[in-house]
């Protein structure tokens, strides 16, 4: 579905592991995973949890293989056979050009409804979290927000004093041009002129 995407980019690691581990149950037709792998290869994973779930699939294994690992063989691996570390690339102190992002927060579900927008300027390559921080700095009463740290990165718990609730099945959903973002606020990097909307939603 959607050129190999199953769920979203963060569920792909576990999906690929599960499909590889249960491949024999799909006989006589084997699952064609080339498109799914191409989606994973094309994505720049940055969060440790996402990387940990994708790596086993990339080497043709799953978490189920952990029980059969030969730790003694791993310890005896010579340094010459280990993979080299990628070179570290610096930014050479060159300032990044600024971009402008249209950022809106909308609530039509609970309490007093609101629909507030602002234009935020941040350096190119900034995350959505940085955009939110700048908006809150310019107008803290309107764009204040709270996050909690998870293994998947920062999770937005409230905006403008309105918090999501598992009891009410509400949460803050982030959209770009009407489409739900597949990355979290700590990793998603808006483009110049992009319209980002945080909508208080139900699941």
TrEMBL record:
<dbReference type="GO" id="GO:0005615">
    <property type="term" value="C:extracellular space"/>
</dbReference>
<keyword id="KW-0170">Cobalt</keyword>
<keyword id="KW-0964">Secreted</keyword>
<keyword id="KW-0406">Ion transport</keyword>
<dbReference type="Pfam" id="PF01122">
    <property type="entry name" value="Cobalamin_bind"/>
</dbReference>
<feature type="binding site">
    <location>
        <position position="203"/>
    </location>
    <ligand>
        <name>cyanocob(III)alamin</name>
    </ligand>
</feature>
<feature type="binding site">
    <location>
        <position position="8"/>
    </location>
    <ligand>
        <name>cyanocob(III)alamin</name>
    </ligand>
</feature>
<dbReference type="GO" id="GO:0006824">
    <property type="term" value="P:cobalt ion transport"/>
</dbReference>
<dbReference type="InterPro" id="IPR002157">
    <property type="entry name" value="Cbl-bd_prot"/>
</dbReference>
<feature type="binding site">
    <location>
        <position position="181"/>
    </location>
    <ligand>
        <name>cyanocob(III)alamin</name>
    </ligand>
</feature>
<dbReference type="InterPro" id="IPR027954">
    <property type="entry name" value="Transcobalamin-like_C"/>
</dbReference>
<comment type="similarity">
    <text>Belongs to the eukaryotic cobalamin transport proteins family.</text>
</comment>
<dbReference type="Pfam" id="PF14478">
    <property type="entry name" value="DUF4430"/>
</dbReference>
<dbReference type="GO" id="GO:0015889">
    <property type="term" value="P:cobalamin transport"/>
</dbReference>
<keyword id="KW-0813">Transport</keyword>
<feature type="binding site">
    <location>
        <position position="53"/>
    </location>
    <ligand>
        <name>cyanocob(III)alamin</name>
    </ligand>
</feature>
<dbReference type="GO" id="GO:0031419">
    <property type="term" value="F:cobalamin binding"/>
</dbReference>
<feature type="domain" description="Transcobalamin-like C-terminal">
    <location>
        <begin position="125"/>
        <end position="198"/>
    </location>
</feature>
<feature type="binding site">
    <location>
        <begin position="155"/>
        <end position="156"/>
    </location>
    <ligand>
        <name>cyanocob(III)alamin</name>
    </ligand>
</feature>
<keyword id="KW-0732">Signal</keyword>
<protein>
    <submittedName>
        <fullName>IF factor</fullName>
    </submittedName>
</protein>
<keyword id="KW-0171">Cobalt transport</keyword>
<dbReference type="InterPro" id="IPR051588">
    <property type="entry name" value="Cobalamin_Transport"/>
</dbReference>
């Amino acid at each position: 579905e959607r050129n190999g995407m199953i769920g979203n980019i963060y569920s792909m690691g576990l999906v690929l592991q599960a499909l590889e581990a249960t491949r024999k149950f799909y006989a006589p037709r084997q699952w064609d995973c080339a498109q799914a792998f191409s989606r994973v290869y094309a994505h720049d994973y940055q969060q440790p949890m996402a990387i940990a779930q994708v790596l086993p699939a990339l080497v043709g294994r799953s978490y189920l293989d952990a029980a059969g690992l030969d730790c003694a063989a791993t310890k005896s691996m010579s340094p010459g056979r280990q993979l080299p570390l990628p070179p570290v690339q610096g930014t050479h102190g060159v300032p990044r050009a600024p971009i402008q992002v249209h950022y809106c927060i909308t609530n039509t579900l609970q309490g007093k409804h609101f629909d507030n927008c602002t234009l935020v300027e941040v350096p190119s390559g900034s995350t959505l979290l940085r955009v939110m921080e700048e908006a809150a700095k310019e107008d803290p009463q309107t764009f204040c927000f709270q996050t909690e740290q998870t293994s998947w990165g920062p999770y937005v718990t409230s905006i403008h004093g309105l918090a999501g609730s598992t009891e009410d099945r509400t949460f803050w959903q982030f959209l770009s041009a009407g489409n739900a973002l597949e990355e979290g606020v700590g990793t998603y990097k808006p483009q110049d002129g992009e319209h980002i909307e945080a909508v208080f939603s139900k699941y």
